[in-house]
Design goal:
heterodimer; A: Creatine Amidinohydrolase, Chain A, domain 1; Creatine Amidinohydrolase; 2 domains; 6-stranded mixed beta sheet; 5-stranded mixed beta sheet; about 20% strand; globular; B: alpha+beta; 4-stranded antiparallel beta sheet; 13 strands
């Protein structure tokens, strides 16, 4: 039975999910207003777009797709969502019926006017870096502060209800990889695998998905969007899938070989497997992000591959997950962020291997009171994609 | 993010065509007394950079600088490991990587001794990037949205060709919808699969699953049942070009005279409309057939950083002519609402 034909009647399923989603949003807003009270803030100005939506979504629970938006949040829990696209505002009216939504042609001017009306209160903005320059200027003139750090901490340390939402989403990452793996057949183009995966995700209620792919051998240095490369026997196919359910992203990274893996590919994969396990074993409250990265990297160094854990070949050794698919903390040897219970991470020693090419392997986990609760359950093995002959 | 196929293909857009656009930009900059043009891009506001150099980011953001007498510079926060892919899909630009792209742009402006730099949607430039730039250069940043819009509104054969191709993907996707559809997921699954297999760079699907109760289009969960009459808006990107196509259907695909009537009227409107001043009058002069009432319309076109931006709507005529626009209408018929949208690419595209 496919995920598109889930066993619960649609109405029960949908109503349960909507109820759970609203409950999580309500918990987030309560935490946010509590943080505002703790820091003496009267109003928050939160920017968002489809790339950097976590700050806005934390308060407004709207998954913006086109244009840009600003959520103006009061300490009393009132939220006004300004959107610069009339069609997006219509969508917000359906998807977030309790929200006050305003469609505006000039986002900077309209929010600027609203800011001027509350200018004698204590107001802060987040994320300051992405705020439209015109609005940041108005904010500076009015003495608005920077609430980015306040939001970052809330985004990193999840409430129990958020962790439940993430657990609900995790099985779809596994199911998505199963679809991807079955689509990986010699003769198909990389974008066809993405098409099959995205089609499945839409049917299963996944709103968004961060997904990259790599196809080939030692010439492949990383993952990108699909470029039209056709799978051939012997190719390694890497992907990271990051389905988003009700705003929460869960990620899985796996590698497969089209046909039978060569001994070189299998040996390389085994090294990544050991590094991933070492990283996961290091996850516990009280360690730092750097400790986890060092545990992963030590496996590569012991194998004489220390060069390949540097920024020349890899970006991060894992990262946080939540309302953004690549949130803090980044798992790197120079990041001293303390790991705390309630964080959600992926540990992935993804990097280039000189003999086999780019390999990925990663699982998402909740940091529990003592250790990691791994969420994704797909076996940690080098998968095999079909050859054209086998599929026919 | 953009999930679909992103590749450089000369048959979609050639380097010569991109170079022509850049030449036009430089001429406009000289006429406006500007030393360079600065464009911001991310996958939501990709329109300007995609038109100017052909590149669309799948994630993160970037700045693209075109000095009037030097090669364009593209600076991204994406890591160096992606350099080969970026260079392959952005062949006319020099590529640089930095976690602080604004600093590299500022340094280049300083090195070029640029004094007046045009920026499209200056007040929307992310504040962090703005600070990085202004920390390292004294060049005056001037809003150049109007200068750029004047270029974007010119008809461009390659863009029109891509618009038609993108619309063909959308039409093919609608044709792939199953005749027997019960849930929203039956529709969205088929649309996603068809459009992405056809090479779409991205698609967004919005649905009004039961027009009898609510005509607003939204992202609806797959398990929600379809009503007797429903509408679907499909927004498709191919090679950086976006179109929208909205259709109204009956669940059982049974004949609905008012929908057919509305489609025929709209095809005629699209074939004869000009996306510029007078559009509102054109719609008034071509009222829908008896029994149908035009309640609302809007016009979208690429003119700044967004690939499609609302430039006119019910009660507000377009200020100037636009190329590669999409028009959306909402009508009320005897059996309920009819929602339609088409790119304005002539009779063929209006089908």
């Amino acid at each position: 039975m496919g995920w598109s034909k889930m066993s619960l009647p649609w109405r029960v399923e949908s109503e349960m999910m909507v109820f759970a989603s609203h409950k999580v949003a309500s918990v987030r807003l309560h935490r946010l207003t509590q943080a505002m009270a703790d820091t003496g803030l009267d109003h928050l100005v939160l920017f968002g777009n489809a790339w950097q939506n976590d700050y806005l979504r934390y308060a407004a629970d709207f998954g913006i797709l086109e244009g840009e938006g600003i959520a103006l949040v009061g300490r009393d829990g009132s939220v006004t969502l300004y959107l610069d696209d009339r069609m997006e505002a219509e969508r917000a009216g359906v998807e977030c019926p309790d929200l006050c939504v305003k469609a505006v042609r000039d986002l900077v001017a309209e929010v600027g006017k609203a800011l001027a009306r509350i200018g004698n209160h204590k107001v802060a903005m987040a994320p300051r870096r992405h705020m439209p320059a015109g609005l940041a200027m108005v904010g500076s003139e009015l003495g608005c502060g920077d609430a980015t750090a306040v939001l970052d901490r809330l985004l990193m340390l999840k409430a129990d209800e958020e962790l439940e939402a993430i657990r609900r989403a995790a099985h779809l990452a596994d199911a998505g990889y199963d679809v991807f793996c079955r689509a990986a057949v010699a003769g198909r183009a990389d974008y066809e695998l993405v098409a099959q995966t995205e089609s499945f995700f839409r049917s299963a209620g996944v709103d968004d998905n961060f997904m990259l792919i790599g196809v080939g051998g030692p010439e492949v240095r990383g993952m990108t969007p699909p470029v039209g490369r056709v799978l051939a026997p012997g190719d390694m196919v890497t992907t990271e899938l990051t389905p988003c359910v009700d705003g929460y992203y869960v990620q899985i990274c796996r590698t497969l070989v089209v046909g039978d893996p060569s001994p070189v590919q299998q040996d390389a994969f085994d090294l990544f497997h050991r590094a991933m396990v070492a990283g996961i074993d290091a996850v516990a409250p009280g360690v730092t992000a750097a400790d986890i990265a060092r545990a992963e990297n030590a496996v590569f160094r012991a194998a004489g591959l220390g060069d390949y854990v540097t920024s020349e070949y890899t970006r991060v050794r894992g990262h946080g997950l939540g309302l953004f698919p690549d949130t803090k903390p980044h798992i790197l040897e120079d990041v001293e962020t303390c790991i705390e219970a309630g964080m959600v991470l992926i540990v992935h020693p993804n990097t280039y291997h000189p003999a086999a090419g780019y390999i990925v392997l990663g699982d998402s986990m909740i940091v529990g009171p003592n250790a990691a609760e791994v969420l994704t359950t797909t076996p940690r093995r080098l998968f095999r994609g079909g050859t054209a002959e086998a599929s026919s | 993010m953009r999930h679909g196929l992103i590749q450089w293909r000369d048959e979609n857009l050639s380097q010569a065509e991109v170079q022509t656009r850049q030449d036009h930009i430089c001429a406009a900059l000289r006429a406006a007394g500007l030393d360079a043009l600065l464009l911001y891009t991310n996958h939501i506001r990709s329109g300007a950079v995609t038109w100017a150099c052909g590149f669309t980011p799948y994630w993160s953001d970037a700045l693209w600088l075109l000095p009037i007498d030097a090669r364009p510079l593209f600076v991204t926060a994406l890591s160096k490991r992606l350099g080969n892919w970026i260079a392959a899909t952005n062949p006319t630009s020099e590529i640089a990587h930095s976690p602080r792209p604004g600093e590299l742009i500022g340094a280049r402006l300083a090195a070029l001794k640029a004094r007046r730099v045009g920026v499209v949607e200056l007040d929307r430039l992310p504040a962090g990037l703005m600070a990085e730039i202004t920390n390292v250069t004294d060049a005056e940043l001037i809003d150049a949205t109007t200068v750029f819009a004047a270029l974007r509104m010119q008809p461009d054969a390659s863009e029109t060709r891509l618009t038609a191709r993108t619309d063909a993907i959308a039409r093919q996707a609608f044709a792939a919808m199953p005749a027997h559809r019960v849930r929203v997921g039956d529709v969205t699954e088929a649309l996603e699969l068809s459009a992405r297999l056809a090479g779409a760079e991205e698609i967004y699907v919005a649905t009004a699953p039961d027009l009898a109760s609510d005509a607003r289009l939204a992202r609806i969960k797959g398990g929600v049942p379809l009503g007797e009459r429903f509408a679907v808006r499909l927004s498709v990107a191919f090679a950086g070009t976006w179109i929208r196509r909205t259709e109204t259907f009956t669940r059982a695909d049974t004949p609905a005279p008012d929908i057919y009537c509305a489609r025929a009227w709209f095809a005629d409107v699209c074939a004869t409309a000009v996306a510029g001043p007078g559009l509102q009058e054109h719609l008034v002069s071509k009222p829908p057939p008896e029994g149908l009432r035009l309640d609302d319309w809007l016009l979208e076109a690429p003119c700044a950083t967004r690939p499609l931006q609302i430039v006119a709507e019910h009660g507000m005529d377009p200020v100037m002519a636009h190329a590669n626009a999409t028009i959306s209408v909402r009508l009320t018929g005897p059996c309920g609402p009819v929602i339609l949208a088409r790119p304005l690419i002539g009779p063929e595209g209006a089908g």
